[in-house]
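Forum > Structural Biology > Help requests

Title: Can anyone predict the 3D structure of Shikimate kinase?

Hi all, first post here. I have the sequence for Shikimate kinase but no way to get a structure on my laptop. I'd be grateful if someone could post the structure tokens.
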Amino acid sequence: MTPDAQTPFPEGSVAALLERLGTRSIVFVGLMGAGKTAIGRKVAQALGLGFIDSDHEIESVSRMSIPELFERYGEVEFRALEQRVIGRVLENGPQVLSTGGGAFMNAQTRAAISGHGVSIWLKAELDLLMERVSKKQNRPLLQNADPRAVLSKLMDERYPVYGLADLMVATRDDRKEAIASEVIEALCSHFGVPGRIHVSEGSEDHE
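Reply #1:
Sure, ran it for you. Structure tokens for Shikimate kinase below:
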């Protein structure tokens, strides 16, 4: 069966992957700007799964933006809320979940992800991250005179922990469909599902 825009994968491959996945969630981890939400949406669309962004879920639950939560309660309280929200979301798999940059640093959150999902680290180089995050002003940890130095320090601190994820896919300045295809191929390899499959462009994202 040849993939097309409506059916981006051979039906049997998708079915086999979903069967192996069971009730587990596909969980994206990585630094801000790595593309966890954009790639996560593409993967979810291709596999016919629901998509949840943990930051959006936290904002919905708290009725406050992430910067407001940081300012009012501080990072420690924010991480505790993040841990509770992600833990609750993970009870409802299978789905695709993108997490905030600091979420995987929390040992309890890592344990919850390990118990209820398969984690994928989207690894990006500093220049790419800077290019992306500089376009947005809603990054509390980068409200600093030298955001590049802050981001570089976060990479030094977090990349060894992100390395504990089940899978790693290098992201870059390329089509989202190309990265999403590599993610799904990594998942197929992880679960022993044969075949080489690609994400087609299909419908546009709504972010």
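The radius of gyration is 17 Å. Confidence is low (pLDDT under 50) at residues 1-7, 203-207.
Shout if anything looks off.
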